[in-house]
Amino acid sequence: xxxxxxxxxxxRACFSGLWIESHEHQDALGEITMLCHSEGWRLATWxxxxxxxxxxxxxxxxxxxxxxxxxxxxxxxxxxxxxTAVLVLQNFHRFLQSAEIVQALVRQxxxxxxxRTFVIILAPVVQIPIELEKLFVVLEHExxxxxxxxxxxxxxxxxxxxxxxxxxxxxxxxxxxxxTRHEAEAAFSLSLIRxxxxxPDAVWELKCQxxxxxxxxxxxxxxxxxxxxGGMTALKAFTKRALLxxxxxxxxxxxxxxxxxSPPGCGKSQFxxxxxxxxxxxxxxxxxxxxxxxxxxQSEERTRQALRIIDAMAPxxxxxxxxxxxxxxxxxxxDSGVSARMFGTFLSWLNDHESDVFVVCTANxxxxxxxxxxxxxxxxxxxxxxxxxxxxxxxxxxxxxxQFQIDRTQRLPDDAQWTGAEIRACxxxxxxxxxxxxxxxxxxxxxxxxxxETVERLRTWASGRCLSADQPGIYSRDVQPASGxxxxxxxxASSN
Length: 496
Ligand SMILES: Nc1ncnc2c1ncn2[C@@H]1O[C@H](COP(=O)(O)OP(=O)(O)O)[C@@H](O)[C@H]1O
Ligand SMILES: [Mg+2]
Fold this sequence. Notes:
The chain folds into four domains: 3-140, P-loop containing nucleotide triphosphate hydrolases (Rossmann fold, 3-Layer(aba) Sandwich); 146-213, no CATH class; 226-384, Rossmann fold (3-Layer(aba) Sandwich); 390-495, no CATH class. The chain has 496 residues and is an alpha/beta fold. It contains 20 helices and 13 strands. Adenosine-5'-diphosphate binds at residues 229-231, 262, 264-270, 362, 388, 396, 399, 420-421, 424.
């Protein structure tokens, strides 16, 4: 349902207080004006800068123009015996600290039901004082859909050849989705100025910058494919099958996402990035550290904003890397419930989102995740990526020996306990310092040694609970490849 459809329904049902959360007031106002016009409702708007304006009347300056209290009271005089009147108050959250204003609103909203007078507050946040909580219904002004983006594009690229056509137009709309109307306009215009036409690539580029500026999300569009990762056979097959199945139209069959667990350096982050390219979706990375680091009161709002952008960019892959870091504070007495609320917002989105967003969460340490996180229905699968076995390591060596053009005749170092990251580091060092691999290996400290206990704990936790990333079926720490078992014997002997 669009904003206008919902608004129209609520006004008919006599909800006298409506709070619209919007970052684009002009646009929301335009839609409200159209609605009021087509329904024959009287409409007035107020903001602190311009005061009260009654739509359709030219001499807008009314008595007490800039007084917020007078604005509320003016609504009474707009009431007619058989008509409907609507007052839009912009950024009125700023004035709700005043007891008089709150009281005036309480009275107005209560009588409004009888007199068919309605108050709409347009604000970028939802901050409703407790006295008014039950009197307001909150609506979200959603980001523009593809239709609207196409309309904006047509408004800007008016000349022949300005706009792409056919499949390229669809690509342009993909590129623009997730932007606000204003941002889309700016992106289209800039592309037109720079390239003399509106191109998907230019819009992608601008969108990357816009997202980065918001500090919450970044966009990854790379060329890497699954072949740049050794091992993970089961995980690759599972995700590809889930995402490429031809049931995009059926929300019940829509894939939801996976949770990936492993010691650091086993390729979780890299996997997410390659997944996007494999299945032809952009990868949006949500920076949870940034979210938490922002001003306390804003975290929740920012979480919602980021989730809205992700929804609007569907179909996409949303990567929430090292998710345990964001939620480490849940239940912690020191943060006054912020993480718990953010976590709640995020979990309910994970459960309820209807958009075609495939979520990949990664975690290095499950003990920091609240237990409810891993509940089965939130994800299509929870995968454990163990340290690579002998076969996987061989594949990874081959990748990086090639990539760094290293002489293959030399002996490989002892790599039991190594992760993919360590194999890569060894090859990189060998190429960088121009030394044999054996020598480069002396500078590699495997995670499995420095954090042996954490790795063991993770394995124990994952055993019987998670799917194995390497082979089909459930991970069990006792049924590992032969080399894995041998590794462990050595490790136990030296680390205890
Ligand atoms: N199985 C693998 N195959 C190829 N490269 C790997 C593999 N595992 C890890 N790497 C490399 O190690 C580096 C670190 O991996 P990353 O994805 O950041 O690990 P994680 O997110 O699990 O900590 C990346 O450059 C990645 O390409
Ligand atoms: Mg990572």
